[in-house]
Design brief:
This protein is an alpha/beta fold. It is built from 26 helices and 20 strands. It is an enzyme of class 6 (ligase).
Length: about 675
């Protein structure tokens, strides 16, 4: 919708196309818990128990993490220890933070901590769950051999204990580390960024500490480095280091003294990472040289015309090698002819990626579209958000900002089987908060395996996300005179002469004004009618026309063979509506698309939703579906008219009420099936 770089339409807020069906039930059954639960994954399924402990000292580890990517690294690390260490073995029990809402899980967590040697926690930022963790770990803290908590809420951070090292002690002593603790509250992006800086200046800091304290503080900082490294090798070294020095039976007997523990292996704190690149790149220009001269030609990408898609990733997924979903999206985007700039940061302030890598040396935005794949707000992640900073960053970039959703707190099976789609907690963290920054298109692109914790790329959702992103990019690159726009008006209530009405909006007056503005911006609008009334006459020969009236202007007659060929889900509609063309929006032989084309602008009348006699059936009946005429309308808009964007005017349309998940739609949800890959703007009154 934009002329080259700077048309203001890029910044128009868009009502995201989610289903808004009435609740199916007060709570979707999720199994294994009370209100608020939504994960069926069982911690017991991922528990690691050594097969052979004969003659070996066993130490027990319990961990709680917000996200699942560390789960696989921890499991692999424990298996490596059990397979490779003759004198020690490890038993490991792990919990995803949200699983502690389940009372059975929580009771098992208490039992596991009571028997543990080492507790590890990370990114525990949900207050009620942080309280639960503290209530269990704090009474066992003195007995535990080591407690390692990485960026989390203050009360959880205070649980840290490695020998003489504690957060409380560091806050009371007079040294460089105490100054850091006093200046940085243990929560949010500033604390994590400060911890990263402290790791980099570790040698300077430790010289201020006495011998034993220096050793214990060094162990904590090394543990943080291992954790940030994230790979199975790093996590194995973390566990061996803690066990060797702090698990009393192992330390006293020197069972690991002969074991050589690797130094932390970490990638840079931020950079541009590509799965087939030889290294992490420091600058945009450096990366683009490699991309344009080496990689893109090998992929058959036309570097002169390809849209450039900037992507923001979480470093922890790269560290832990849980990157299959990232790789799938990058490869799919490239297969569709786009250049991808995949960036990451170890901070929770993802605006660092934007500022560092999405502008060229001249300071101009160097990408066409930005996609945030972290699933969180741009600044603050799941902890604390800084929306003003995020908005300032995005306004400077001035590009469409898409925030796709990895199903972080649900397994793929749970999301797939749920009528809600995303659970309310996930909606809040991964949809609502990013929307406050200005994000659009909350499309699911990955799920989680409940046992391994590995991310699973969702191929059909990635396909839609890539198509949508590329079409947003082409809107910016395409000349206005070549852009095709479909404007959709509603008829509600149907059969009442209400075509083009909406609460608190003069629909045809607004459309007429918009057409005039589009013409000024260089859009091809043909010969415009002389007045609003003339526009209405062109679309509705009879101003009182009913939706099924032949007086509505017919823009296109779609034959049944064409409809079946272009609408892959057409057969699914026959359960409710019989074979096409049916009786709605049909002349008995063809499917009729009502509306009128003005140059490259199509003004169409959305068909009735088909359940006028029983509208609640559309909301509640699981078998409900749009009729063939409704599907044919959107098939025409995308595949025959080939709209670059669709604009819905008003508040009474049926698209968002079609059956499907409420948030985080699947490819079988009808709002998603209907709109497909078209960028959709909804002018809501």
């Amino acid at each position: 919708m934009m002329q080259k770089d700077d048309s203001p339409l890029l910044n128009v807020p868009m009502q995201l196309r989610r289903t808004m069906r009435a609740p199916q039930a007060a709570m979707v059954a999720t199994g294994g818990g009370g209100p608020g639960l939504f994960t069926n994954s069982k911690p017991g399924d991922r528990k690691i128990v050594p097969d052979d402990v004969a003659g070996r000292e066993v130490f027990k580890v319990v961990y709680v993490v917000l996200e699942s990517q560390y789960q696989a690294s921890l499991s692999t690390a424990c298996k490596r220890i059990n397979a490779g260490q003759p004198d020690v073995a490890v038993e490991c029990s792990g919990y995803i933070l949200e699983e502690l809402r389940d009372e059975a899980n929580f009771q098992q967590f208490k039992k596991d901590v009571e028997e543990a040697n080492i507790f590890i926690g990370s990114l525990i930022f949900v207050q009620e769950l942080a309280d639960k963790v503290v209530s269990v770990v704090e009474p066992n803290r003195d007995r535990l051999d080591a407690v390692c908590v990485f960026p989390s809420m203050p009360a959880v951070m205070k649980l840290n204990k490695i020998g003489s090292f504690t957060m409380a002690a560091m806050g009371q002593s007079k040294n460089v580390m105490s100054d850091f603790m006093k200046k940085n509250k243990p929560t949010g992006t500033s604390f994590q960024d400060g911890m990263l800086k402290l790791v980099r200046t570790l040698p300077k800091v430790l010289k201020y500490l006495p011998g034993d304290k220096a050793k214990d503080a060094r162990t904590f900082m090394m543990s943080l480095q291992y954790w940030l490294g994230g790979s199975p090798e790093n996590i194995e070294a973390l566990l061996l280091n803690l066990a060797s020095n702090y698990v009393k039976p192992i330390a006293d007997a020197g069972l690991l003294t002969a074991v050589e523990v690797i130094a932390p292996e970490v990638i840079p704190d931020k950079g541009i990472w590509h799965p087939v690149a030889p290294r992490v790149f420091d600058t945009y220009d450096e990366y683009m040289t490699w991309l344009r001269t080496e990689h893109a030609p090998s992929m058959g990408i036309d570097v002169d015309t390809a849209p450039i898609i900037g992507v923001v990733l979480q470093k922890s997924h790269i560290n832990t090698r849980d990157d299959a979903h990232y790789v799938a999206l990058i490869m799919e985007m490239e297969a569709k002819g786009a250049l991808v700039v995949p960036t990451y940061t170890g901070s929770l302030d993802f605006s660092l990626c934007v500022d560092s890598y999405f502008f060229n040396a001249a300071g101009k935005a160097a990408i066409d579209v930005m996609i945030n794949l972290t699933g969180f707000a741009l600044v603050g992640g799941p902890a604390t958000q800084d929306h003003p900073k995020a908005i300032a960053t995005l306004q400077r970039l001035n590009r469409p900002y898409l925030c796709a959703v990895p199903a972080t707190f649900q397994t793929f099976e749970e999301w797939k089987d749920s009528e809600l789609g995303l659970h309310p907690v996930q909606v809040a963290l991964q949809v609502a908060l990013p929307e406050l920054d200005g994000a659009i298109e909350p499309i699911i692109f990955a799920g989680r395996d409940g046992v391994t914790g590995r991310s699973i790329p969702q191929a059909d959702r990635i396909d839609v996300l890539c198509k949508r992103a590329i079409k947003w990019a082409r809107l910016r690159r395409k000349d206005n005179k070549d852009k095709k726009v479909a404007v959709t008006v509603f008829s509600f209530p149907p059969d009442k002469g209400n075509v083009g009405t909406a609460a608190y909006l003069n629909v045809f007056g607004s459309i007429y004004e918009a057409l005039g503005n589009l013409k000024k911006e260089g859009y091809e609008v043909g010969e415009l009618p002389e007045s609003v009334e003339a526009l209405v006459d062109e679309i509705l020969h009879d101003k009182e026309a009913r939706i099924a009236s032949p007086e509505l202007n017919i823009a296109y007659k779609m034959t049944v063979p064409e409809y079946k060929e272009l609408t892959p889900y057409a057969a699914d509609l026959e359960e409710n509506w019989g074979p096409p063309p049916g009786n709605l929006n049909s002349d008995g032989q063809n499917l009729l698309v009502y509306g009128k084309t003005f140059g490259n602008i199509f003004i169409g009348v959305q068909p009735s939703f088909g359940y006028e006699g029983d509208p609640m059936r559309l909301l509640y009946a699981k078998s409900a579906s749009p009729h063939h005429g409704f599907a044919a309308y959107y098939t025409y808009v995308e595949k025959v008219f080939e709209a670059d964007a669709v604009l819905h005017f008003g508040t009474h349309g049926s698209l968002e009420f079609m059956p499907g998940k409420q948030v985080g739609m699947a490819g079988t949800c009808y709002p998603d099936r209907l709109i497909q890959s078209i960028p959709n703007l909804y002018y809501y009154a």
